[in-house]
Design a protein that fits this description.
Number of domains: 1
CATH class: Alpha Beta
CATH topology: Glutaredoxin
Largest sheet: 7 strands, mixed
Mean pLDDT: 95
Strand order of the largest sheet: 2-1-5-4-3-8-9
Radius of gyration: 14 Å
Helix content: 25-40%
Distance between the termini: 25 Å
Number of helices: 4
Low-confidence stretches: none
Shape: globular
Structural class: alpha+beta
Length: about 160
């Protein structure tokens, strides 16, 4: 089931790249961009995360925080964050529950891998309502960051 604009965002608690729990409720009262990405250390995922890294101040100036979620382990995410000098939390959905709740999970991915997060972008407002939802079928495509910023500018 895919989330739509106007839906209440499913609550989650995941372990971050510092092995600490992070919950959606931690961001109550602020806008949140939630990015799902297939796998750390891959070309398009690295491009996406670095694009967000380089624009983070712009998002923060719009009362917005950013988290990125993949099915990688917290330890892999910590190495990825360090290697790319990422400045926002990476969350491990190792058990694939949150990716599934957000309609962002490939049943079958490349090389026979199953249960990998689809590249997706969601804007969740401070009340927990989805204001933007984009789930990409092709892992080679990037989210429409312009549309994400446009949505945030209207909140």
């Amino acid at each position: 089931m895919s989330l739509k604009v106007g839906d209440k965002a499913p609550l989650f608690t995941l372990v971050n790249d510092e092995t600490k729990e992070v919950s959606l409720q931690d961001y109550q009262g602020r806008n949140l961009v939630v990015l799902f990405f297939p796998l750390a250390f891959t070309g398009v995922c690295t491009e996406e995360m670095c694009t967000m890294r380089d624009a983070l101040a712009e998002y923060n100036n719009m009362n917005t925080d950013v988290v990125a979620i993949s099915v990688d382990s917290p330890f892999t995410l910590a190495k990825f964050k360090e290697a790319e000098r990422l400045n926002f939390p990476l969350l491990s959905d190792f058990n694939k529950e949150v990716s599934r709740q957000y309609g962002s999970l490939y049943d079958n991915f490349v090389f026979g891998m199953q249960g990998v997060s689809k590249r997706s972008a969601f804007v969740i407002d401070g009340e927990g309502i989805v204001r933007y939802a984009e789930v990409l079928d092709s892992a080679g495509d990037l989210p429409n960051f312009g549309a994400v910023k446009e949505t945030l500018a209207q909140l």
